[in-house]
């Protein structure tokens, strides 16, 4: 096994799978992106609890989608995080043209590993099962499988177990960068020669408890509860916070040699990645990043891909509809050395689906790849009233779906804890 890092190893995306607001699969997600359909709905349970934010990006998820895919005994051991992840991971696996044994009797696939990002994890198991039973002194009723359902690492383990993956199985928790960081770890693992394929992504459930945490911080949208589709407003002068959401997204990363050997369909190329922390110094805090950390992360991804700033055609921003939007645009401008009027095209997938936290980087990477592959840009909803600071950026932000053929895309992620993660995607071409 070659463990020497080779940054010149080409890595491509051969599979995608998703559970997201407005979409049960990648085909539905593509349709919703092209139409600019909002997946944000009124959330009556949040209203009943008195949360200020009473809307959410509600994933189109049905437990029945696991029927015939997972043996019944294994089904009973799954948390909701695991269910989201398995549905998306299996779609990704099949999209890549790889065989799946639902009886789980096949030999391990030693050439494939997995990395899964979660920001919070299986909070539903802890709040709905563990805490009540412990409080009632009935902890012995939790059963012998409670540990694997309640561990954050259990989701990656479940995906590895369902597919029999014998490569590394790891969990990444880097706040809102978790999904993007898992993809970054995937490309690094392939470049080290430790695997030929990595199944990577992120997952976060729609949870009242998670929403309540952020509601208490007053960082959630609260002014558009009667108009859910208007609630997520990145870049808008009337933005009032992010919309909580749930979902899962997975990519199958593969070395170009492996993909070519099995004549796999290739969606795009992952040309570079980078992650860092701003150290919570200068203007950085636990909840607001150090600007120079963000600048360095973007430049690091460009350098890793061997791409010049002027070659970036499109940016899928982190853009949460908070005060962080202003800092993010300033970071992009400095990192790319481009004035606002000369910036690449830019949109905010969160305007359509809300903020899926640990899944955000993975789901938004899928949005980036679909736009890159198929030559279009989805609209950023609800930013017709741009912040005054972004006035010169207006021509670069589509508010309606547009056709747009481009070659190079940047995906940025910024998270609590002053962490950053960036990915650089190319339209796939045989040369190089």
Describe what you observe in this structure.
It is a single chain. With 432 residues, the chain is an alpha/beta fold. The chain folds into two domains: 11-268, Peroxisomal Thiolase, Chain A, domain 1; 274-426, Peroxisomal Thiolase, Chain A, domain 1 (3-Layer(aba) Sandwich), CATH 3.40.47. The chain contains 14 helices and 14 strands. β9 (314-316), α12 (324-336) and β10 form a beta-alpha-beta unit. α11 (291-305) crosses α12. The relative contact order is 0.18.
- Could you list the spans in which at least 5 consecutive residues all have pLDDT below 50? none
Strand order across the largest sheet: 5-4-6-7-1-8-14-13-9-10
Could you state the oligomeric state of the chains shown? single chain
Mean pLDDT: 94
Named CATH architecture of the largest domain: 3-Layer(aba) Sandwich
> Can you tell me the CATH topology of the largest domain?
Peroxisomal Thiolase, Chain A, domain 1
The tally of domains stands at 2
Report the strand count: 14
The coarse overall form would be: globular
Order of helices and strands: EHEHEHHEHHHEHEHEHEHEHEHHEEEE
Helix content: 25-40%
Distance between the termini: 24 Å
Query: Describe the biggest sheet?
Result: 10 strands, mixed
CATH class of the largest domain: Alpha Beta
Helix count, DSSP H or I runs of 4 or more residues: 14
Q: How many whole angstroms does the radius of gyration measure?
A: 20 Å
Structural class estimated from helices and strands: alpha/beta
Strand content: 15-25%
Pick out its properties.
Peroxisomal Thiolase, Chain A, domain 1; 432 residues; 10-stranded mixed beta sheet
